[in-house]
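Action item from last week, closing it out:
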Amino acid sequence: MVASFVYAAVRTPFGRFGGALADVRPDDLAAVAVTGALAKAPALDPALIDDVVWGNANGAGEDNRNVGRMAVLLAGLPTSVPATTVNRLCGSSLDAAIIASRAVESGDADIVLTGGVESMTRAPWVLPKPSRAFPAGHVTAVSTTLGWRLVNDRMPKEWTVSLGESNEQLAERFTIPRDRQDEFAARSHNLADEAWDAGFYDDLVVSVVQNGEVRLSRDEGIRPGSTAGKLAGLKPSFRPDGVITAGNASPLNDGASAVLIGSETASQRIGLPPLARIAGRGVSALDPQMFGFAPVEAAERALKRAGISWADVAAVELNEAFAVQSLACVDAWKIDPAVVNAKGGAIAIGHPLGASGGRILGTLAARLHESGERWGVAAICIGVGQALAVVLENMTGRTR
């Protein structure tokens, strides 16, 4: 059976909403990630890329419907390189990697470039198009930045609550208090800062340069020296007596990521040894308002397909949409919290929706390479009640 491997991974720094990347179009951000990934494989002739699979959650404006194809063209790849854009909301770029791995394993492709992008700053307002000309009433412009919009009236109201309210319900269901969430969030910031200072991200992140000017070279939202005590002073964001704040939830961000995937025999053409084998994949779904807990089952399925258990896993990259949902998943898995997001997570680094799956997959591969451990899991929750997970195997890694 043909196996699929991660060969290279890069991402842009993640910018704050309205921050350093606010005037950079999402298709340009995507092109930066494409160029950065190929720069890690200078021996690869780009014309040999069989396909590009790109993730994007919004796609309502400058993403231009098929932002993957736009990125290929803007990055200067041959016009013969095809590309598609996939949308599984927050999981879009991890879905892109999963699609690519299946294409490689089935023999339909040998080398596939994957990734994702989101500019949440530049996500436009949209107006519903009237079915008849010149409606007499007011029309409201709806933000496409995050969450439900233009909701179908047939959807049950309990499904369409805000993401924040969904996670308030999760906190109640699993009795996860505010102080635990704040401690988790502070840890995210401090670990991310330490990882940057130690040089871990130097080879994973490519600066965004536009018109000869460096717009951003380091994640913009990390707050060194964060403590649970400092975060405790923030007001709840969704309920007057709630537990979720701007400090223990991921922010709105701009950024892109890319992951190069290929077969074992593609190594010579790529000019690199593989970083890790894609050993298992999992997808799951549940009630939309419980989306934060969906990674639990997705990861279990990915582990089963990889033929291992949590006892074998040395590293976990779990996208931190909210501290509460991350804690709920870690508690359910009954794993050592120390192996989760050891280089910081989305609460600190950021969560540009379409780019986050590629970020956690690339970070996981780098962590396994750095530690010499064998097995890792990347998992991400997805709005409207879904999740994805991937198991990576460091082929030269030691078994626990």
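Closing note: Residues 4-122+250-393 form a domain with the Peroxisomal Thiolase; Chain A, domain 1 fold (CATH 3.40.47.10).
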